[in-house]
Amino acid sequence: MHGRGPGSKSVIRVLLIGCGDVALRAASLLRGRARICGLTRRADEVPKLRAHGIVPIVADLDDFASMRRIALAPQAVLHCAPPPSDGRDDPRTRRLLAALTRAQIIPQRFVYISTSGVYGDCAGARIDETRPRRARTPRGRRRVAAEDRLRVWAAHHGVRLALLRAPGIYTQTRLPLERIRQGTPVLAPDDDVYTNHIHADDLARAAVAALFHGRPNRAYNVTDDSEMKMGGWFDTVADAFHLPRPPRVTWEEAEQRIAPMLLSFMSESRRLGNDRMKRELRVRLAYPTPQTLLANVAPRELKKQLPLAL
What we know:
Blueprint: E1 12-17, H1 21-30, E2 34-40, H2 46-51, E3 54-58, E4 76-79, H3 91-102, E5 109-115, E6 126-127, H4 138-157, E7 160-166, E8 168-170, H5 177-181, E9 186-187, E10 194-195, E11 197-199, H6 200-213, E12 218-221, E13 228-229, H7 230-240, E14 248-249, H8 251-257, H9 260-265, E15 271-272, H10 275-280, H11 290-305
Parallel strand pairs: 1-2, 1-4, 2-3, 4-5, 5-7, 6-15, 7-12, 8-11, 9-14
Antiparallel strand pairs: 10-13
Helix pairs in contact: 1-6, 3-4
């Protein structure tokens, strides 16, 4: 998948689809190893993309005509754009593949960031990538539809496809602090569910690794080493920031007090195995557990909140 220009260092051409936080982190890791173009629907994001060394392409996955602007021939595609927020399919991925095919732009490698929600509820079992997908939520079913379409397209065109199934993504600025401050309840221990996590840096690292090391038509659970229940996750963050722990409620109470979106996450319990990610993608986690981040971030944030000495 390497391309050589006269007298130039060997690099690859990578197309980023959806230039959000994880994609920008991946671009930073690829700097010096790739020529990167990035698709964004917002013209006001062009300066930010350029600052990250990305050649911007202003196009919208919801507007097929705008996809004509994809004029380069990437050797690899990193697809980070989510499906729409409704429906059972992912028309954005469908339009992307149609645009690439129409323009005869067939990459050698394709990495898609999916979600662990494709597995559905596993009743807290430890699972690996051989677990059948039984998505129950519309959100999970849209991801299953995207995965299926990508598998068919990749097999037809001989593309090495890697599906990265990611759980809850966290960073210093993506912690449930506001929910904790608002006193959003979590489930009582007897009703609580296992949840899984990955730091955005480690997800970006896995995405780049998949571009180079991913096996054809292969799924990878991209998760850290922690095994935490959702209530334990909220308690851990609350303790780190010296906040009151959230109240615990039964499932029946939760149905009355918790917003439907958060409640949908509380209806599924699973513990993801990451052996394949470590073995095949050779990923070494910078944040093996959320406590790694919290131990560094919380003391700094708490120090900022201390009143100035007189």
